[in-house]
Amino acid sequence: MITRIREVRRARGMTLDDVAKQCEPPTTPQTIGRLETGTRTVSIGWLNRIARGLGVEAQDLVERGTGAELKVAAVLGQGGALAPKKASIVVPPRVDEGQIAVLVTNSVGEYRSGDELWCELLDPGDYGRALNRDVLLPRPAGRFLFGRLINRDEERLQVLPLESGGRQQVVANPAWLAVATKLVRPL
Question: Among candidates 129, 84, 81, which has minimal Cα distance to 109?
Fold first, then answer.
């Protein structure tokens, strides 16, 4: 059986030791490492223990042929919304088609470091549904704009960045728009 234990563990920002301690009963980081790499056979019991330790369903740890993943489109930090330095995913309980994610690395507006924002991609005709909501828009050269959509007309969107003192940005005919629909915040 091919597992996604390492991928899910890394998406959760946990070390081997963190997962080992979260298992019931606790185990060693070496055991988790062996189960991740396949040098030790993963039983259903181990799969369930590790899933509980990671806070996901056991099925999220099993490689599926057409496995649904919520890909991280941008990382929100001090410099605004940026493209991720490496490909990563967020592990959702269920992914709907047309979803992307934003990871928050530094507190911005009402969002805290560690938050995950799940966003729904909208068709241009549906951009009005995003008024007065937080949105992610693509910008040239692999950059992004994240903020509150405050106005729209036929060709332009006006977005107010969440940073204190941020100036309104006008974006003409963006290729796409994603509206934040779910905040996942670790407690």
Answer: 81
**Pick from 134, 74, 138, 61: nearest CA to 100:** 74
Report d(CA 163, CA 146) in Å as an integer: 10
Section 62-69 average pLDDT:
61
Average pLDDT rounded to a whole number, residues 67-92: 81
User: Considering Cα of 130, then 133, then 136, then 138, what sign does the dihedral take?
Assistant: positive
Determine the Cα–Cα distance for residues 174 and 169; give it in Å rounded to an integer.
12
CA 74/CA 166 separation, integer angstroms: 19
* pLDDT tens string 127-156: 989 999 999 999 988 899 999 999 998 889
User: How do the residues of the chain divide into helix, strand and coil, expressed in percent and rounded to 5?
Assistant: 25, 35, 40
Closest CA to 135 of 119, 152, 151: 119
Question: Whole-structure pTM over 0.85, yes or no?
Answer: no
What the block records as the tokens of 89 is 């995913």
Instruction: Note the pLDDT of residue 68.
Output: 56
